[in-house]
Amino acid sequence: MSVPCVAVARERGETVRSRLADADALDGDHQIAVDGDTIYIPVVGRERVPADLADRIVERDPAARDRPTTPAEILGFEPSLERLGDIVIVDEDDDERAREIADAVMAADLPCDTVLNRASPIEGELRVRQWDVLAGNGTETVHREYGHEFLLDVAAVYFSPRLATERHRVAEQVAAGESAIDMFAGVGPYAVPMAARGAEVVACDLNERAVEYLRENAERNGVADRVTALAGDVREIADEYADTADRLVMNLPHSADEFVDTAVALAGDDCVVHYYDIQHEDDPFGPGRRAIEAAAGDEYAVAVETERVVRSYAPHEHNVCLDVRLTRTGD
């Protein structure tokens, strides 16, 4: 059976395999093969392969891989699981059922060091939650996403792997030399890729632990010279960085509207704002647009370039993003 494979030099094999895994492009049904100095990595489809690897796709007939034992095969039902680095997260109210799932995860052929169960909702100003450690012994992990690594402790910082595609979408818009400000940066999942694209990034977060991880992640990904990491309320830096931003990321969807005045103060003459919101399905984009227009007043022309539903958040509620261009009017 002919299967598309990415062919690369053996010494690049692990790097390319990781990138394909981040893009959800790996074909788990077939084995990776080595022939001389070339490694052939089966992929599920050409459309998922990163563009710079597309010319490396060849057709091969790789050996089939034995399907691994899955938690579902052990349990007899499909549990709801989320992966974050080498941590598997379950979300069960029943402790006995949660521990049964954790035992199955650890027994399955699934790369995993720790299984956690959510023990509380996201709480407080720092947006963190409590966890029950069902297997393993820690809450720190390294998450890999589109070729970047992020060290983080899920008990100390907020991080959602579900936003990987959205973060990549924003990063792909960044041009070298831009001045970008990530107003609620966390451990750097927007800031690091933007810096990797050549932007000079100011990244701010109220959570001091998150900022420590942000600095570490900038180092890990080779962009520390282009990331200025600041701990504190972004409103406190508005005067220092006023009128400088070519791009602003506002990923604080429950309360970003409280910071639109600060965003306008930070914006340069031509600035794209990535504004995240959670709103009812009847009018998911209107409140954000109106908040930005009110803050911009006569100082900026406001153009909404993209209205995007990122994901469903709750029944009849959506997590959305507006890409908004602010252009100074000169009035």
Automatic annotation (TrEMBL):
What InterPro entries does the database record attribute to this sequence?
MeTrfase_TRM5/TYW2, SAM-dependent_MTases_sf, TRM5-TYW2-like_MTfase, TRM5/TYW2-like_N, Trm5a/b_N
Alphabetically sorted, this entry's keywords are: Cytoplasm, Methyltransferase, S-adenosyl-L-methionine, Transferase, tRNA processing
Q: Could you give one GO CC term from the UniProt record?
A: cytoplasm
Question: Which CDD domains does the record cross-reference, listed alphabetically?
Answer: AdoMet_MTases
The organism's superkingdom is given as Archaea
GO molecular function, a single term: tRNA methyltransferase activity
Enumerate the spans annotated as SAM-dependent methyltransferase TRM5/TYW2-type domain. Answer: 81-328
Which PROSITE patterns does this UniProt record tie to the protein?
SAM_MT_TRM5_TYW2
Name the record gives this protein: SAM-dependent methyltransferase TRM5/TYW2-type domain-containing protein
Listed under GO biological process in this entry are: tRNA N1-guanine methylation
Q: Which residues cross the membrane?
A: none
